[in-house]
Amino acid sequence: MLGEILDVLTAALGPTSTGSAQSHEQLFKEGRVLVFGGCVVGTRPYCRPEAAFLHLSLTALAFSPVREADVRARQLPVDGLETVEVRRWRTGDPAAVRRNWDVVECRDGESTVLIGCEPFYTKYVRQVLQPVGV
């Protein structure tokens, strides 16, 4: 029981060691939600231009102004998003994208959507955006 509580706390607080990274990987594979600082910038329904928290699972991406899971978390559609590139912050990126973050640049039709987060979490964002079986 204590181990499960520590895993949940580790997921909420972010990576601090190799053990934490392994814990994040295990939680994600089990279908648990990872919560971390990030932003999503684009046209509606992706218009979340302030940095806050991303809630990510194997099948869903949500945005919330708070770390805790609550009714304010807004699920974002990921089915139509195609990853164009994963890159570091660039001059000219929106203010919500922090300089030390990676940016997953996506397309939804003709619209550009940017998902910014710490580099550690980029692989999880990519997994959610990747079509099943790819």
Report on the architecture of this protein:
The structure is a single chain. By secondary structure, the protein is α+β, with helices and mostly antiparallel strands. Helices cover 24% and strands 34% of the residues. The chain contains three helices and seven strands. The protein has a seven-stranded antiparallel β-sheet with strand order 4-3-2-1-7-6-5. A hairpin with a 6-residue loop joins strand 1 (34-41) and strand 2 (48-56). Helix 1 (2-13) crosses helix 2 (18-29). The relative contact order is 0.19. Residues 1-19 have low confidence and may be disordered.
Total helices: the number is 3
What is the ordering of alpha helices and beta strands? HHEEEEEEEH
Question: Could you estimate the helical fraction of the residues in percent?
Answer: 10-25%
How far is the first residue's CA from the last residue's CA? 35 Å
Give a topology summary.
Blueprint: H1 2-13, H2 18-29, E1 34-41, E2 48-56, E3 61-64, E4 74-76, E5 82-88, E6 102-108, E7 111-117, H3 122-129
Antiparallel strand pairs: 1-2, 1-7, 2-3, 3-4, 5-6, 6-7
Helix pairs in contact: 1-2
Give a brief outline of the structure:
The protein contains three helices and seven strands. It has helices at 2-13, 18-29, 122-129; strands spanning 34-41, 48-56, 61-64, 74-76, 82-88, 102-108, 111-117.
Record keyword descriptors for this entry.
134 residues; alpha+beta; seven-stranded antiparallel beta sheet; 3 helices; 24% helix; globular; disordered N terminus
